Amino acid sequence: MKVLRFMLQNQTQVRDLTLEHLWLVGVSTILAMLIGIPLGILIAHRTRLNKPVLASANIIQTIPGLALFGFLLPVPWLGARADRLAILALTLYALLPIIRNTYEGIRGVDPAVIEAGKGMGLTESQLLYQVELPLAVSVILSGVRVAVVISVGLATIAAAIGAGGLGEFIYRGLSMVDNRVILSGAIPAALLALLADFGVGWLERRLQPK
After folding, report:
1. Could you read off the pLDDT of 136-153 as tens digits, one per residue?
2. What pLDDT, in 10s, does the model give residues 24-60?
3. Residues 86, 25: Cα–Cα separation, whole Å
4. Long-range contacts of 16-19 (CB under 8 A, 24+ apart)
5. Residue 36, CB half-sphere, CA atoms under 13 Å: how many?
6. pTM for the model
7. Which 8-state DSSP code applies to residue 49?
8. In this predicted structure, what is the pLDDT of residue 46?
9. How far apart, in Å, are the Cα atoms of 128 and each of 100, 111, 116, 206?
């Protein structure tokens, strides 16, 4: 009850920080999709690039969040704006599940379907857009779903460099040793992760090939 009362008393700030959190997660996820899906398609058709691309994405995943922020902070254009730095870091973290699922989705298309498409005279680009992507879209969205949930959690760390978001409450609560403030950031962040998981999961099921 104390947490709810605190959130109601500070509802404007809770709303603003939630919107900041959504902005960081939304922009970084879109950027990760714009980079990750084409990369996944590329390595699915050029298998020699598979290991180096996935290994690079795996290495990024192993770097702790605060350490990655520290590595990027000295970069002049990025370090000048905390939100830019946070968006780049979140984008890098979101790449692995999107690249991997795009690769697996494209590679998982039945070869007989591909051969049938070629037999109908479809070009490589037509095969990609009319056959492979429609059949792989649910697998790709599964990767996006994982990426969004990861980003919602990691975005709380962005407050450590002044990028805003619900992590502001968490860090403030830790410094004040006040559970009300901590939970005022943690509860909305958890709800956002659950809503994102449910929403993308619903879309994934809707687009699953029959």
Report:
1. 999 999 999 999 999 998
2. 999 999 999 999 999 999 999 888 888 899 999 898 8
3. 9
4. 17/164, 17/165, 17/166, 17/168, 17/169, 17/185, 17/188, 18/166, 18/188, 18/192
5. 30
6. 0.89
7. G
8. 87
9. 17, 13, 13, 20
